[in-house]
Design goal:
The complex is a heterodimer of chains A (86) and B (63). Chain A is mostly helical and 86 residues long. Helices cover 57% and strands 0% of the residues of chain A. The chains are: A mainly alpha (86), B little secondary structure (63).
């Protein structure tokens, strides 16, 4: 994955999450579609990788035990969706 | 289930569901394009009827 700034990473996370949700909905009604399933797994892996990169650089995106908060309690400091520039 | 609500001028329609038959998985937008379109499936873009051609709800007939 090429180097991206904070807004680019956030846009990629939002876009991958949306794609995962849409594929999830499709697979709910087409559970045997191998291509859709492969795409879902590829998107899920890309999403996890992008979230890991973002969190390493800018802090946790989620709380409730899904991300570690190093140094200080920081998940709430992330921009809200309407605060991003992308 | 009644999707009409008695509040406001007349009886307001709260929601209307459209179910579009979806063909087999063929192609999808890249993630950013999908986010912009509100769907990753090109065949589902702009499936909604423009307002002037909006079908009349059976409950609106005779009002």
């Amino acid at each position: 994955m090429r180097a991206m700034n904070r807004d680019e990473l956030m846009l990629r996370i939002q876009a991958l999450e949306f794609t995962a949700v849409d594929l999830n909905l499709f697979l709910d009604t087409h559970p045997c579609d191998a291509r859709a399933l492969a795409d879902y797994n590829q998107v899920a892996a890309a999403l996890a990788q992008t979230v890991a990169v973002y969190e390493q650089m800018y802090g946790p995106l989620t709380n409730f035990g899904r991300s570690q908060s190093c140094g200080r309690w920081a998940w709430v400091e992330q921009p809200w969706p309407w605060e991003t520039q992308a | 289930m009644d999707y009409h609500h008695a509040i406001g001028p007349g009886r307001m329609e709260l929601a209307r569901a459209f179910v579009c038959p979806q063909p087999a998985y063929a192609q999808r937008f890249n993630p950013v394009e999908g986010l912009k379109h509100g769907t990753i499936f090109p065949e589902l873009v702009r499936v909604y009827v423009p307002e002037p051609e909006r079908p009349v709800c059976p409950r609106e007939v005779g009002k």
